[in-house]
Design brief:
binds coenzyme A; 12 helices; Aminopeptidase
Length: 339
């Protein structure tokens, strides 16, 4: 008999243990995450696997996989985002961790996943390699400084830190691409309604080679109903027809603006949104705008022209598939993660 028994089960049976494992091992997990993962995702509820000690029947570890729909060349495909991998400390090191990952892989076809992906931390990176995952690309973390003095004081050359912030700010503004577009019709959306449906469908069909399948139901669940909370939506509308031309999703935490998603008809409207976001940041005394995106994201060059700079923080996105599937050019942002 093997040391661990792996079973797919309804997570609510083990809600108490899940909350305990999160609290101890992944303490940033917001309360309400389990309910959010199981209810409201148009791609379906997350699947959970649990590892039990065969002798004592004690719960030794867990893993989840959250369904996600993408559009590849105009066709819907189905992915699974693997996460919540935790093994109780008493069962670590050649315990059930690898078997949990392999159980997800084995069930891919049953769940109808074309591929699965995950962003492992340093503790689980090797496990993914052993399980047969491959690196899809690097997730870069970029920053557009707003309070330049803050960054110079923290990292920078002593000389510049004595210059007045307003002076540095003017230089930065002068070399940032978004400075030279008119803000246009940009405003904060207080809801995500049907007008997002036509807009998303239009872009998915004609613009992006591969992108998340978005509509108002998905966006509302992914951001507005997310227990992580604090997500805000900024939209840009065309001057003549009043139609949506782009949106971005952001949240403010600890004087930092974090960007989670950008979806756009054209780059000019993104510049208007970033221009407005920088205004909001200055108004609210934020130190910078942060964004995580895959290096292959087509918007990366535009962000560089807006003076987003690379931080040293990087992470790899790993993927597994039994099919030949070309994911190059995916406009992957933090919104494509399972958190
Ligand atoms: C991540 C976590 C689940 C890993 O569990 P674990 O029991 O330490 O994992 P394992 O013992 O199976 O793997 C430990 C090592 O053995 C290696 N290993 C496992 N099975 C192997 C095999 N069959 N052959 C060769 N090497 C193997 C792993 O690659 C890993 O190598 P490393 O120590 O050099 O990194 C655990 O540390 C944990 O719960 N951490 C807290 C929560 C967390 O961080 N989760 C990840 C979120 S992304």
């Amino acid at each position: 008999m093997s040391r661990f028994l792996i079973q797919q089960q309804d997570p609510f049976i083990h809600k108490k243990e899940i909350l305990e494992l999160w609290a101890e091992n992944l303490p940033d997990t917001p309360p309400g995450r389990l309910e959010w993962m199981m209810d409201g995702n148009p791609a379906g509820p997350a699947k959970w696997f649990f590892a039990f000690d065969s002798k004592t029947n004690q719960l030794a570890g867990m893993i989840s996989v959250m369904p996600k729909l993408l559009i590849l060349h105009g066709q819907i495909i189905r992915a699974g985002i693997m996460g919540d991998l935790v093994v109780d400390k008493r069962y670590r090191v050649f315990g059930p961790a690898l078997s949990l990952v392999k159980s997800v892989i084995k069930s891919m076809a049953d769940f109808g996943f074309d591929f699965i992906y995950t962003i492992p931390n340093s503790d689980s990176r090797k496990l993914m390699e052993h399980a047969g995952f491959e690196v899809l690309g690097e997730l870069v973390h970029m920053l557009k400084p707003l309070d330049l003095n803050y960054y110079f004081r923290k990292y920078g050359p002593g000389l510049l830190s004595h210059l007045p912030s307003s002076c540095l700010q003017l230089v930065m503004k002068a070399i940032s691409r978004e400075t030279y577009v008119s803000p246009g019709k940009v405003y904060e959306a207080d809801s995500i309604n049907e007008e997002f449906d036509a807009f998303c469908q239009d872009i998915e069909r004609y613009k992006q080679r591969i992108t998340a399948h978005r509509n108002s139901v998905y966006l509302k669940w992914r951001f507005l109903d997310n227990p992580a909370g604090g997500f805000r939506v900024l939209v840009h509308k065309g001057k003549s027809n009043n139609d949506l031309s782009s949106y971005l999703v952001y949240a403010v935490e600890d004087r930092r603006i974090h960007l989670y998603d950008i979806f756009c008809k054209d780059e000019i409207s993104v510049l208007s949104l970033i221009n407005m976001l920088a205004h909001i940041g200055f108004r609210d005394n934020c130190i910078g705008i942060y964004i995580r995106l895959l290096e292959q994201n087509p918007l990366l060059p535009l962000l560089r022209r807006c003076r987003f700079i690379d931080t040293r923080d990087k992470a790899s996105v790993f993927m597994y598939s039994n099919k030949t599937i070309d994911l190059s050019g995916w406009d992957f942002f933090s919104g494509d993660r399972n958190i």
